[in-house]
Here is the input.
Amino acid sequence: MKKIITTKKKEDATRFHVVIFGSARLKPDDPVYRKVYDLAKRLAAKGMDVVTGGGPGLMEASNKGCQEGRKNLDVRSYGINVKLLKPQTTNQHLDIKKEFNRFSQRLDYFMYLADAIVVAPGGIGTMLELMYTWQLIQVQDIIHVPIILLGDGYAALLKWFKKNPLKNSLVSPEDFRMIHVARDNKEAMNIILTRYQYFLTQKKRPKTHYAKYKI
Here is the structure.
């Protein structure tokens, strides 16, 4: 078995990381599990690292897809875990594992790594991750990071935001500029590849990229 790296070695700013958030509850026979596995496999085949919470469900699907899709490419599968009262189970498809004592630290590390973010179907934890990311984009603590809402389920959420907070001037139209709904993996890949091509022309992430929150 390949050894999992747990060191605090400084992350290479020339690597492109796609963070995938999603439910820990979905099983391998679920169509959404297979969809997320396929997306991660495609990302790895293009040379992108995949970052998850390191647990079961859609996190496992993402990490497994990453390892099985990278072939001989230098691509890493990350698991960013958190200590809870109940011991957490990590999946078996990680190259790099990091563990934090608090959710806030964990979220900050996700943001430090993220060059693109995919939000797959999930529950309260996934909503926390989505809203935290969205607010940091709103206040420009992170920039140039697209948030891709995967699947049709999030269309209703965006409709609610536009019908209520936006209509009542509680948010601004520009707050939606980095939010994308991808109905399938092809649409998600097109959005990520656009960002990836820009990243490759720069050869590293911009200096303003969330560096002040590095753990």
